[in-house]
């Protein structure tokens, strides 16, 4: 990437080699699109890519997506890593998540309520790390032929007819489509004129690694005080919420030892002494979402499209979901195999989910505020979280168990992520989706369904045969992103099935 003018016409240019941009690139390249990622950082070791607190919780849909693309086994960190905050305690008392800092205990969560999950389903949640994910996606992207240009921040772009020209300083690149996956301060969003609507922050959050001379002055666990909240999850690992309307974070000032100490002293009402600041980052609960995810040939995905506080740990999962949803639809459009309106369903399906996550994070902030009303609400939430149904509800929201799209189909499972059905030879449906195609899953071996699938060529794969547990179903039409487009019990109405298939594929 040394010439000032790159004459190659790419199908898609992606801004940003973060997890969302990389995963989207993998999806597009799997579907045989040519992809160039332009990344601002000079290389993967650049300070711009430093993630001092990079541990992330993956939710059920992200884990399923990785499984469906053969990357699940590459996740190593969760096998050895114990997050002292998220996973404190043992057995039934093990903390597996939280709502507004209220712990969700493993023993209270009744997974039998999640009827569509099977023994062969992947975990509902696990811990990964930004670096681990980016490495896995980068290896796969490169193996699939994606070009990644480091040290090439997008500085401008222009839509001309059926093309987009993209500038990085004095270099110009050309593509049919541009997707902004360039994070919360997205240049693509700003230059593309996207409205970014939402709410302003209530607090500055601090995540720090510190040496403390007198740690006994701080109480263990999460402490809501009259001024904010502090949490010492393990010695030297301190999180603080200072309800300053995000003033410190927005000021752009350096995070110094003196500043962290003064905030911690004020919030904890102690004279605790910090002797070393080893790492620190700040964040806020600003919650904003682009009012459209598409402007002509330009799309937004991930933090470029939506930001919110990391409470509940859902931003990465939301972004990976965007990528899984957009990838196959954009590829089908590029290959002229997209039914009318397919690309519009990206925004129609993803925007409401983004809004739900923003509201989930706002609800937590409301319960965490240092005032009497919030303390009263917090106590009620704590009681609920300690009940079986309450904990199961919170866990299902945090892990995305009931996440689904409204596809208007009458079967209750339509719009949900497909269960990981296991066939008699031990293969699972997730493993059969590594090629990124849609699947017509026929448990009863009805020949007419095989013929129907063949009408859609390589867009739709026909899989037939009994599964160990079929959840009472006979036929499922599964989109390339693993979402159930149509489901049936008993005899199949071919016309209905065909009408559904025609919504997603071209015969
Ligand atoms: C403290 C904290 C804890 C979190 N915990 C969780 C969690 O547990 N679970 C969870 O799901 N989420 C969590 N999140 C949120 C999650 O980290 C983000 O949602 C996720 O990183 C978004 O990925 P992305 O690829 O959209 O953006 P980013 O990760 O920000 O990547 C954007 C990429 O674009 C590049 N870039 C920027 N500008 C340009 C440009 N002009 N041109 C080219 N490239 C550019 C950047 O260098 C970067 O590589 C947390 C966030 C924070 C701050």
UniProtKB/TrEMBL annotation:
Keywords: FAD, Flavoprotein, Monooxygenase, Oxidoreductase. Residues 10-361 form the FAD-binding domain. It comes from the Bacteria. It holds the Pfam family Rng_hyd_C. The keyword Ribonucleoprotein does not apply. Its cofactor is FAD. GO terms for molecular function: monooxygenase activity. This is FAD-dependent monooxygenase. It comes from Mucilaginibacter ximonensis.
């Amino acid at each position: 990437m040394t010439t000032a003018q790159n004459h190659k016409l790419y199908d898609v240019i992606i801004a940003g080699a973060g997890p969302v941009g990389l995963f989207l690139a993998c999806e597009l390249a799997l579907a045989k699109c040519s992809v160039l990622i332009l990344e601002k950082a000079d290389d993967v070791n650049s300070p711009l890519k430093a993630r001092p607190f990079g541990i992330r919780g993956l939710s059920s849909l992200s884990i399923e997506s990785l499984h469906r693309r053969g990357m699940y086994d590459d996740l190593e960190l969760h096998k050895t890593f114990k997050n002292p905050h998220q996973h404190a305690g043992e057995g039934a008392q093990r903390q597996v998540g939280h709502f507004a800092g209220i712990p969700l205990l493993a023993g209270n969560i009744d997974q039998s309520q999640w009827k569509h999950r099977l023994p062969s389903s992947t975990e509902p949640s696990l811990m990964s790390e930004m670096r681990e994910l980016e490495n896995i996606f980068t290896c796969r992207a490169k193996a699939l032929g994606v070009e990644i240009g480091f040290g090439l921040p997008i500085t401008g772009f222009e839509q001309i007819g059926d093309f987009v020209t993209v500038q990085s300083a004095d270099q110009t690149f050309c593509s049919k489509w541009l997707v902004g996956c360039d994070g919360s301060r997205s240049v693509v969003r700003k230059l593309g004129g996207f409205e970014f609507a939402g709410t302003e922050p209530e607090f500055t959050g601090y995540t720090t690694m510190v040496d403390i001379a007198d740690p006994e002055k701080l109480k263990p666990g999460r402490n809501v005080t009259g001024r904010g909240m502090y949490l010492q999850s393990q010695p030297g690992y301190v999180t603080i919420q200072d309800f300053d309307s995000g003033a410190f974070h927005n000021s752009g000032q350096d995070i110094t030892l003196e500043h962290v100490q003064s905030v911690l002293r004020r919030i904890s009402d102690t004279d605790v002494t910090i002797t070393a600041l080893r790492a620190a980052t700040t964040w806020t609960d600003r919650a904003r979402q682009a009012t459209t995810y598409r402007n002509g040939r330009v799309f937004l995905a991930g933090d470029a499209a939506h930001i919110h506080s990391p409470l509940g740990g859902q931003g990465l999962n939301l972004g990976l979901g965007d990528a899984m949803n957009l990838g196959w639809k954009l590829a089908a459009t590029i290959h002229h195999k997209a039914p009318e309106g397919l690309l519009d369903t990206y925004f129609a399906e993803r925007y409401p989910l983004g809004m739900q996550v923003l509201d989930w994070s706002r609800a937590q902030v409301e319960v965490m505020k240092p005032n009497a009303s919030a303390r009263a609400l917090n106590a009620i939430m704590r009681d609920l979280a300690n009940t079986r149904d309450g904990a199961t509800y919170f866990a299902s929201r945090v892990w995305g168990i009931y996440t689904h799209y409204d596809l208007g189909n009458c079967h209750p499972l339509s719009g949900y992520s497909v269960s990981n059905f296991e066939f008699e030879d031990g293969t699972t449906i997730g493993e059969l989706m590594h090629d990124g195609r849609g699947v017509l899953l026929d448990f009863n071996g009805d020949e007419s369904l095989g013929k129907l699938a063949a009408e859609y060529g390589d867009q739709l794969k026909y899989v037939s045969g009994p599964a160990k547990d079929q959840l009472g179903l006979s036929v499922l039409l599964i989109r390339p992103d693993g979402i159930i487009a149509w489901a049936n019990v008993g005899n199949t109405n071919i016309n209905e099935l065909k009408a559904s298939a025609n919504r997603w594929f071209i015969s």
